[in-house]
Amino acid sequence: MRLSILDQAPILSGGTPGEALSESAKLAQIGEKLGYSRYWIAEHHDLKGLACPSPEVMLGYIGALTNKIRLGSGAVLLPHYKPYKVAETFNLLATLFPGRIDLGIGRAPGGSAEAAEALSGNFLEKVWKMPEAVKELIHFLYNDFPLESIYSKITAAPLPVIPPKPWLLGTSEKSAVLAAENGTAYVFGQFMSDKNGAEIVKKYQSNFKKNTRTAHPEVIITVSVFCAETEERAEDLALCHFVWRIQQESGQSEPGIPSAAEAKSYILSVEEKARFAGYKNKIVYGNPAQVKTKLLKIASEYNTDEIMIVTITPSYEERIESYKLIANEMFAI
């Protein structure tokens, strides 16, 4: 089974955006050495604690620091942009780093309503036009508009030898159907969804339309994972992330995840305790052997051979250690 990395470029307590982005590059380099298949970085806008609004800029930087790991966006939020510009940007990356570039496509705003307005104006109107934008983007990537199209005489230059591979990201049946109709690969964000993901993925797989670009459905499941030497420590890491999310939602915190001591001292309400119990059922946490068992179970449930892991911890060292422990357990010969 293949494992990959999704990075949200978290800014830790007392840290700076520059440090967060430097650590993102370091994570990609270490991930490559450990045997992870892909490193993708997310797009967020004016969200406290997350440092990357522009995956394409970071991918150019990280591509120069790595040699073989596939690099991608998780995701470019297409309603904010014209498909032609996105295709040009990722074709440029694919020209610089042949055979290594993935183009993850999403429809979320990635920030507040105000940020969405500043980026693209009427965001909801552009979400409605997302199916058309996806088709247009794919045609630009493969330079195969029909002759009657107004875009048939232009190219999203430079045209790479190997085009960026498009992946549609989502958490709903709507995204699964859109991916299937366009014959693209699909990423289900299990860590962001409360829906029956296995059924959604099955919908994608059963409705997939084969084409000259993609002969069969391809699926990645994105999961929030915390791995440590002991189950107790892994649960502490999960609690740290959960408390940080509560603090972010309520505007209580500065950027940065609380330490285990700080998280344990945070008094959860009855409702929050119930939420934490549900959260623990949704994520993967434990010692390396436990995490391996859970990841293999998820792969079986979703009928996929690739899982993408997102991990945010109180320190960058703990994040790297989590990825190392998982790789050593999963890739052991």
TrEMBL record:
Origin superkingdom:
Bacteria
Q: Which InterPro entries does the record cross-reference, listed alphabetically?
A: Bact_Lucif_Oxidored, CmoO-like, Luciferase-like_dom, Luciferase-like_sf
Q: Where is the Luciferase-like domain?
A: 1-296
* Pfam families (UniProt xref): Bac_luciferase
The record's comment on protein family reads:
To bacterial alkanal monooxygenase alpha and beta chains.
NCBIfam families of this UniProt entry? oxido_grp_1
Q: In its UniProt entry, what is this protein called?
A: Luciferase family oxidoreductase group 1
Naturally occurring in which organism (per UniProt): Peribacillus deserti
